[in-house]
Amino acid sequence: MGVPRAHSTRAQKGRRRSHLALHKVGLVSCGHCHKLILPHAVCKYCGFYNGREVINVIARELKKKEKHQHKSK
How many helical (H) and strand (E) elements, i.e. helices and strands, does the chain have? Predict the structure, then answer.
């Protein structure tokens, strides 16, 4: 088992841990639906990215419901 070479003071520990704090997530508003999303990511609410539709969210929801109905039968 390793033995510490010297006692670490509270100040030394604090300086070492000064970069461990959590940071706020930088959210931006979607250009299409104006909901808060992560930057440089497709909006999960409307499916738009950079002014054009990348994912058809409505078709995706219908497919999900259809699959759930088929599974419950």
Answer: 2, 4
For residue range 40-56, list pLDDT tens digits in order.
999 999 999 999 999 99
Q: DSSP secondary-structure letter at 3?
A: -
Report in angstroms the alpha-carbon separations of 68 from 23, 59, 61, 62, 73.
Answer: 38, 14, 11, 10, 9
**Whole-number percent of the chain with pLDDT over 90:** 64
Q: What is the pLDDT of residues 15-25, one digit of tens each?
A: 999 999 999 99
Helix (H) / strand (E) element for 21: namely none
Which stretch of DSSP H or E encloses residue 37?
Answer: strand 36-37
Which positions ≥6 away from 30 have C-beta within 8 Å? 36, 37, 43, 45, 46, 48
